[in-house]
Specification:
The strands form two sheets. Strands 3, 4, 5, 6, 7, 8 and 9 form a seven-stranded mixed β-sheet that branches. A two-stranded antiparallel ribbon has the order 1-2. Strand 4 and strand 5 form a beta hairpin. The chain is elongated. It has one domain. The N and C termini lie far apart (about 45 Å). The chain contains three helices and nine strands; from the N terminus they run βββαβββααβββ. By secondary structure, the chain is mainly beta. Helices cover about 15% and strands about 35% of the residues.
């Protein structure tokens, strides 16, 4: 990591290291079809692609959609005051799911086995990123925290992103269909 043009950069930065917002993304090898699912850990490029195109976070196919919206599973209670609801929506790093993978996830993911809520979401907006926050230092920048940063926050220039954060709005809780 280096400082270039007043922001965090890779020493050997390439055009695909940044997204269309100029955010620097973590480099992770891509080996589709290899390995086993690690629930709670999703490949940065796969997570971002799933969020941007509303693809299933498990299999990569289109997420389940119907007239009520796209299917999302969250491991939270919507009545919990920690989760922002109403006009501001729900902020999440978890992409949507297709129906078969939603059922598999509820049975296989330890977090979702405890508690989850299924939502049908009609509108999403890209809100920011989650990643490693750096501060300038000599001889190179130093990672200081793992944070979620909005796109309009100036600190975004000092983040190496690993997840796209999306705000879910116009949603309704539903029973997970069979």
């Amino acid at each position: 990591m280096v400082v270039r043009r007043g922001r965090l950069a890779f020493a050997d930065e390439r055009p695909y290291d940044r997204d269309s917002n100029g955010v620097l993304w973590t480099r992770t090898p891509s080996q589709p079809g290899k390995g086993r699912p690690e629930y709670g850990k999703i490949h940065p490029h796969r997570q971002r692609n799933a969020m941007e195109q509303l693809l299933c976070q498990v299999c990569g196919r289109p997420a389940d959609r119907n007239q009520d919206g796209t299917l999302w599973l969250l491991g939270e209670d919507l009545q919990d005051p920690v989760i922002p609801t109403g006009q501001t929506g729900i902020l999440t790093a978890h992409p949507p799911l297709c129906l078969p993978c939603a059922h598999t996830s509820v049975g296989a993911c330890p977090h979702l086995r405890k508690q989850y809520v299924a939502l049908r979401v009609r509108h999403t907006e890209h809100a920011g990123v989650r990643g490693a926050l750096y501060r300038p230092a000599v001889p190179r920048p130093v990672a200081i925290d793992a944070v979620g940063i909005a796109f309009d926050d100036q600190l975004i220039h000092w983040v190496r992103a690993g997840q796209l954060l999306v705000r879910l709005t116009d949603y309704q809780p539903v029973e997970l269909p069979e």
